[in-house]
Amino acid sequence: MAAVDEKVSPHVVLFPFLAHGHVPAFLRLASLLRARRPGLDVTLVSTPRILGSLSLPPASPPLRLHALPFSPADHGLPLGADTLADIHLHQFIAFFQASESLRPAFEEFVSGIGSPVCIVADAFFGWTADVARARGASHAVFLPGGAFGNAVFFSVWEHLPHAHTAADEFPLPDFPDVVLHRTQIPRYMLAATGADPWTAFFRRVIAFCRRTDALLVNTVKELEPAGLDMLGRSLGAQTWPIGPVLAAPTPSGSRDDVGIIQWLNTHPPRSVLYISFGSQNSINADQMRELALGLEASGCPFLWALRPPLGFDAKDGFKPEWLPAGFEERAARASTGLLVRGWAPQVRILAHPSTGAFLSHCGWNSILESLSHGVPLIGWPLGAEQFFNAKLVVEWGVCVEVARGNMESSALEKEKVAEAVRTVIGDTATGEETRRKAVAIARTLAAAWETPGGSAAESLKGFMISVETSVR
User: Fold this and answer.
1) Which of 294, 280, 244, 261 is nearest to 449 (CA)?
2) Which of 16, 321, 452, 466 has its CB 3.0 to 4.6 Å from that of 26, i.e. a possible disulfide?
3) CB distance 369 to 376 below 8 Å
4) What 3-state class would DSSP assign to 358?
5) What class of enzyme is it (predicted)?
6) Could you report the per-residue pLDDT of 367-413, keeping only the tens digit for each?
7) Nearest to residue 372, comparing CAs of 303, 438, 274?
8) Per-residue pLDDT tens for 25-37?
9) Which of these, 285, 282, 284, 287, lies nearest to 305 by C-alpha position?
């Protein structure tokens, strides 16, 4: 008979949302859990196509994978559209709704597990809290994003404060100290009426998240005490800050990657601006041309991971007319600019000593990757909670915001781009201060996982103890 105080570790079921930025965070979480509980049974659940695309390191016991059948075409989506990266923005809501069709297969899988279970799911799969209740399992929501960004994102969906005023600035009803500007509201939120499919979906997500036992958050307690408090009060669950949870750099010996690093090697320390707007969004064509002109006017070397403008399919390639005539050729001749089509080895670029700043869409993974290497940001949020992430890092003093959004009304001036780049990368008081603060945050992020005593390490330990206590 087991001793009364013996730990009983449950079978942990991880269920990330079907998006490229979410799956790697859950894989890293699996590694962190198993490092602290050797032999822990962990199963990652997703669609066959996503699981088939994974390259997993050897482990003992191996991470289990379980595929749930998913037919996007049955919901009016393109055949094989298994992730958000496979579709356009206007199709996102149909994809969100289609993802709810995974519930019966997930219920069947969980019901077949004989041992105690702990379900750790993405907020988009908050309905798994009800599956956990029916199974007698414990449940946690894992937020790969930050605390403040998610708390504000949920608040805006719940209250639609911009729809109840003509003013450009307005406070959040549940967090009156947080004042937003209309330009910080994403396009699909701006159009929401409260009776639309987007609002209905996100209000379902919020309601389900309020049924969870715990909130695992990809942030650091020392950096986001207020955001964690907001999130905990909003969703009524204990928060466990376990960040930074970052995927390991993807090893690559490709000729393109080697060429990128060699190009960076030719530039002085902290002199290059890296530009990327993530894997799921882009700026519009007019903004792209103006950004190019601003980069040229700044005189600073840059490395730009290019995607086609908003509304164009990345699979169709990049057309020269989306950039000013002769722009790429001039940059190449002077060795002041390198344009990379599609994916770039972001972590390796940010870790390179020549990288001086990151012009980013302010997705949370990108923010953490940048600040983990002490690289300050130039912010250009495009959608979702990115606007609120940008607000936070501007308040931290590690970001200068250069533009907002990619709508036709979202104007960009090349002069403002040039000024922001020179300010952050150049020998200016602001640049020096942002670099100093970014380096300080890098130290805080690293310290969170130092053992013993690191705040993230202690938080994950506390979460595991609470789960094990519940299944004795």
Assistant:
1) 244
2) 16
3) no
4) strand
5) transferase
6) 999 999 999 999 999 999 999 999 999 999 999 999 999 987 778 89
7) 438
8) 999 999 999 999 9
9) 282
Calculate the CA dihedral of residues 398, 458, 133, 75 and round it to 10 degrees.
Answer: 30
Domains and CATH numbers, the chain: 11-243+450-470 (3.40.50.2000), 255-445 (3.40.50.2000)
Which CA distances in Å does 157 have to 161, 190, 302, 318?
9, 10, 37, 35
Given a contact cutoff of 8 angstroms between Cβ atoms, the answer to whether 59 and 34 are in contact is yes
Q: Using the structure block, give the residue that is written with the tokens 């059948």.
A: 69
CA 252 vs. chain centroid, Å, equals 22
Most confident of 53-57, 278-282, 312-316, 388-392: 388-392
Name the token pair of 33. 């859990």
Handedness of CA 337, 396, 401, 384 (dihedral sign): positive
Q: Contact, 391 vs 146, CB < 8 A?
A: no
pLDDT digits 0-9 by tens, 279-297: 888 999 999 999 999 999 9
pTM exceeds 0.85, yes or no: yes
* C-alpha to C-alpha distance for 44 and 249, rounded to whole angstroms: 20
